């Protein structure tokens, strides 16, 4: 008998979660104006809003936290993290920040100015927001295959090199401060970028003398997909793949709350001291001194250990297999999802799920609300609300992909929880023809509106 797959960890501590009733959920979601971010965690049974900062730390990470050096400047925890980042990524210089969007804020303050153009592969919400806050433009150069959720393509996160070169050819070098490669590409469904593609982007960037930075929140998951999908890498270790990935970049931003499996933390890695020195000014201004940057010593220790935990093959295999397990349950039931399955989440194609809802009524948000009401499962809209309004015209943007994301926290839920999530969504799918109206916005912020938006049913 072939031995079945089993998780590569044991559960040492548990946290109770409360089942809620449908009547309670209908009231609670109406009370918060149909914004899933505004729900209390006590009102959620299975929380798949995000995989950011929601993972379970290992015994080794908890041990490292007890060794944290809380010195304001030059703590041993800083140097431990510095040495780990050098070993894992190869970058000689780094700045600690309290999370990923803080890293973007510091880096873009040093690099991006009004009128600039920043090409990349489907910039995520905070990345695009930080660019547009500076009245610059994020230009999506993702391959077209990413926008067909039925297509089986191993690297849907890839940058289309022809689109990229067209941007570089038709704009002056002074207007393009950097190229961003998001690994894995969240907005296109947690899809990986191949090493071949990263080499091609690097070569084009060198041709035009433009730096490349990686948005690296899920870099280890990207490396796993390279190992199992890209020819020539099946026998290469995850950490060696990671080293090669970052060899094609001039720097990186990192939300450590993802692949470093911590509750808070981030950093920026740099190849060159010149830009490190320039960004250091903003790090001190926004985050704290350059040897702690918004993190305590114990947090830095946890990140350092988490970078090792997160680049272990057995851990990654367990984590990504659980995502695929949920995806296969849904696919087998006919639920339209982005395929192949991504590394950190299952992305449901809301346009195909609810074809009778017009895009102006926020299809993915409608689906996410219905899933919460059905089973107390909290997902998140990756669609028209998150896309914000165009900062120049003020008009709503309607992206090609209208997705509901089910982001799975690391080392938190069992496959029985995945069975529950699948059953809840399949129940909604079975009654999808009865869902004919969506929502309108009654209150919104001028940027990153999805976090605090208020809605009413149509």
Give descriptors for this structure.
single chain, 458 residues, alpha/beta, Aspartate Aminotransferase, domain 1, Aspartate Aminotransferase, domain 2, 2 domains, five-stranded mixed beta sheet, three-stranded antiparallel beta sheet, 15 helices, 38% helix, 12% strand
What kind of sheet is the major sheet?
Answer: 5 strands, mixed
Strand order in the largest sheet = 2-8-7-6-5
Number of domains: 2
Looking at the structure, what is the overall shape?
globular
Outline the low-pLDDT stretches. Answer: none
> Tally of extended strands?
14
The fraction of residues in strands falls at 5-15%
CATH topology of the largest domain: Aspartate Aminotransferase, domain 2
Number of helices: 15
* Secondary structure category: alpha/beta
The pLDDT mean sits at: 96
Helix content: 25-40%
Rg, alpha carbons: 21 Å
CATH top level label of the largest domain = Alpha Beta
State the fourth-level CATH superfamily of the largest domain. Answer: Type I PLP-dependent aspartate aminotransferase-like (Major domain)
Distance between the termini: 55 Å
Order of helices and strands: HEHHEHEHEHEHEHHEEHHHEHHEEEHEE
Looking at the overall shape, the CATH architecture of the largest domain is: 3-Layer(aba) Sandwich
């Amino acid at each position: 008998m072939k031995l079945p797959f089993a998780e590569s960890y044991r559960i040492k501590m548990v946290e109770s979660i409360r089942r809620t009733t449908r009547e309670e959920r209908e009231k609670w979601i109406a009370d918060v104006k149909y914004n899933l971010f505004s729900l209390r965690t006590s009102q959620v049974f299975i929380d798949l809003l995000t995989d950011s900062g929601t993972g379970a730390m290992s015994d080794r990470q908890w041990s490292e936290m007890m060794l944290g050096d809380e010195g304001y400047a030059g703590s041993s925890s800083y140097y431990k993290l510095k040495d780990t980042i050098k070993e894992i990524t190869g970058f000689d210089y780094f700045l600690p920040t309290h999370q990923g969007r803080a890293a973007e804020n510091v880096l873009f303050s040093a690099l991006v100015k009004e009128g600039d153009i920043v090409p990349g592969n489907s910039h995520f919400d905070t990345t695009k927001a930080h660019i547009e806050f500076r009245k610059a433009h994020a230009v999506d150069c993702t391959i077209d295959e990413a926008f067909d959720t039925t297509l089986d393509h191993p690297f849907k996160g890839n940058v289309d090199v022809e689109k990229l070169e067209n941007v570089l050819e038709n704009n002056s070098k002074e207007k393009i401060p950097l190229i961003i490669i998001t690994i894995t590409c969240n907005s296109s469904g947690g899809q990986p970028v191949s090493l071949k593609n990263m080499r091609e982007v690097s070569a084009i960037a060198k041709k035009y003398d433009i730096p490349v930075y990686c948005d690296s929140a899920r870099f280890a998951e990207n490396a796993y997909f390279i190992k199992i999908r890209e020819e020539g890498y099946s026998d290469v270790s995850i950490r060696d793949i990671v080293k090669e990935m970052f060899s094609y970049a001039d720097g990186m931003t990192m939300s450590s709350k993802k692949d470093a499996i911590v509750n808070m933390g981030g950093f920026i890695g740099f190849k060159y001291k010149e830009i490190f020195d320039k960004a250091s000014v903003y790090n001190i201004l926004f985050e704290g001194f350059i040897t702690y940057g918004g993190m305590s010593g114990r947090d830095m220790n946890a990140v350092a250990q988490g970078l090792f935990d997160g680049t272990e093959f057995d851990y990654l295999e367990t984590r990504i297999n659980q995502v695929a397990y949920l995806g296969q349950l849904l696919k087998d039931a006919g639920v339209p999802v982005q395929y192949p399955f991504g590394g950190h989440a299952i992305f449901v194609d809301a346009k195909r799920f609810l074809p009778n809802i017009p895009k102006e009524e926020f299809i993915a948000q409608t689906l996410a609300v219905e899933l919460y009401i059905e089973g107390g499962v909290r997902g998140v809209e990756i669609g028209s609300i998150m896309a914000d309004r165009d900062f120049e015209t003020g008009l709503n943007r309607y992206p090609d992909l209208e997705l509901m994301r089910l982001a799975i926290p690391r080392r938190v839920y069992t496959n029985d929880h995945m069975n529950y999530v699948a059953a809840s969504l399949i129940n909604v799918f079975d009654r999808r023809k009865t869902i004919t109206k969506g929502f309108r916005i009654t209150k919104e912020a001028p940027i990153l509106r999805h976090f605090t938006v208020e809605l009413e049913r149509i």
